[in-house]
Design brief:
Number of helices of chain B: 0
Number of strands of chain B: 11
Helix content of chain A: under 10%
Order of helices and strands of chain B: EEEEEEEEEEE
Number of helices of chain A: 0
Order of helices and strands of chain A: EEEEEEEEEEEE
Largest sheet of chain A: 6 strands, mixed
Largest interface: A-B, 25 and 28 residues
Radius of gyration of chain A: 13 Å
Shape of chain B: globular
Oligomer: heterodimer
Chain lengths: 113, 114
């Protein structure tokens, strides 16, 4: 069975500081990995995805993530955050054998001025 | 192009009542999914339609939940009778092909059972 762990439920950070949101997964098969973001009062929006190829994936709004198979991680990073990045971020996994997305419990990013 | 639309955005009902949530997927998307997030926990899969057929309903909590997708267009999720533990945010998503390409999510319906 697949699972996703987001260890940090909340990450406070000052504006213009770098941030890393951690995601670890477990799976016995090849995986596809996603980061979704939910801004206040909005739906889930895809930030980026890893399907295959380069392990460094760039997404929207300056975010990027690196797939590390040996460490079963897919951490999300941004070198300099803005107030507008305040939102909840979800890591998710699926595979070729499943249509389901398995989500982590989410990380609230709180950007302070 | 319109995105995935869910109605209502919020619903507050009493325990024992019935509630029906609706999802309009992106036009042309054969795949439609329902997910639920109970307060503070992870978003969990409920079920998956391909057109009007249920492909996987392994995540449905119990027989108080009934999902339909008549004609392969919009979908409804009915909870009857509602219980307190049904409270949460219900998300709908649609995709044109395999889920691992990209799923488009709606804004969700926040259901509160009191």
């Amino acid at each position: 069975a697949q699972s996703v762990t987001q260890l940090d439920s909340q990450v406070p950070v000052f504006e213009e500081a770098p941030v890393e949101l951690r995601c670890n997964y477990s799976s016995s098969v090849s995986v596809y990995l996603f980061w979704y973001v939910q801004y206040p009062n909005q739906g889930l929006q895809l930030l980026l995805k890893y399907l295959s190829g380069s392990t460094l994936v760039k997404g929207i709004n300056g975010f990027e993530a690196e797939f590390n198979k040996s460490q079963t991680s897919f951490h999300l990073r941004k070198p300099s955050v803005h107030i507008s990045d305040t939102a909840e971020y979800f890591c998710a996994v699926t595979s070729d054998s499943s249509y389901k997305l398995i989500f982590g419990s989410g990380t609230r990013l709180l950007v302070r001025p | 192009e319109a995105g995935v639309t869910q109605f209502p955005s919020h619903s507050v009902i009493e325990k024992g009542q019935t509630v029906t949530l609706r999802c309009d997927p992106i036009s042309g998307h054969d795949n439609l999914y329902w997910y639920r997030r109970v307060m503070g926990k992870e978003i969990k899969f409920l079920l998956h339609f391909v057109k009007e057929s249920k492909q996987d309903e392994s995540g449905m909590p119990n027989n108080r939940f009934l999902a339909e997708r008549t004609g392969g267009t919009y979908s409804t999720l009915k909870v009857q009778p509602a219980e307190l533990e049904d409270s949460g945010v219900y998300f709908c998503a649609s995709s044109p092909g395999r889920m691992n390409t990209e799923a488009f999510f709606g804004q969700g319906t926040r259901l509160t059972v009191v």
